[in-house]
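step=predict obj=Carbohydrate esterase 2 N-terminal domain-containing protein n=343
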Amino acid sequence: MLVSPEHKYLQYSGRIEDSNPQAPVFIFPASSVTIRFCGRGIAVRLQNRRAYWNNYMGVILDGAQSRICLTEKPDRERFVLAENLPDTEHTLMLFKRQDACHEVTFLGFELPEDAGILPPPAKPERRMEVYGDSVSAGEVAEAVEYTGKPDPEHNGEYSNAWFSYAWMTARKLKAELHDIAQGGIALMDKEGYFHAPDYIGMEHVWDKVRYQPEAGTVRKWDFARYTPHVVVAAVGQNDRHPVDYMKEDPAGKRAEIWKEHYKSWITALRGKYPQALIVLATTILEHDHSWDDAIGQVCRELDDKRIVHFLYRRNGCGTPGHIRIGEAEEMARELAAFIGSRW
């Protein structure tokens, strides 16, 4: 029995490109589809478009997490997610572990003919949105043996948005999450690491649902579809590449240009979400404090009681590598406590 992507009992979460409702495309990390069913097995039909790295999708079935490795085949493929299950009620969430290193088209679930589909669980009443880079996406999070150390060699296998501080924070706050995170991204084009050598910045990405020209038509996001109560803007640490001008000359022309662009972006976010709490932050990944100083300056200049600057206890000095699971938990505890006191 094929369960169409348009089935009324499927529950989607995340900024998903669904202009074709029969073939929604998952682009951002933590995007998901959830199904409740009675039956002994379940499979999924997917079509993957790889940009780089090996690509994986996450699966949580009745609370147990696993993953499936996608291929580079251009055609749709069938992946068995579970077999020989007890013939009772089950809940399965299929989610995107990684950022735009790939796009995956969801083409439906397959259930045994005698299976039944149940109404989905209720969505959280609270809504959260995070704009960030690889740390917000959970990149290399599962390389726990390298906690506090530089990254190991990897090819995408350690990345998992479920273990990002962003999703951990949302779960602690019992909030739905839209995770607008992309590894390597800086604020402005021509800086950072994403989409080398023609670097694309968050100024280009933040209001899109598809943002890589090579992947297809660039599409704007309809902000009326999702209104968060809290927004975390966690951009400002990849911006040091290729030149760390904020560290070298924090009062210089390039630094002032960055602050002007950052202020314009936060002002644009406020325009989309007039009532939201907007939290300005970076992460505990090592970077020079001058970037956080610049963000603090912009926050003061905005003079908005619902736009606040947050620093982690180990902000900018926690680790030279990506944030591992334990470090993400540390960040999530601090961020959730900060947001929770202001919700």
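step=describe
The CA atoms of residues 45 and 107 lie 5 Å apart.
step=end
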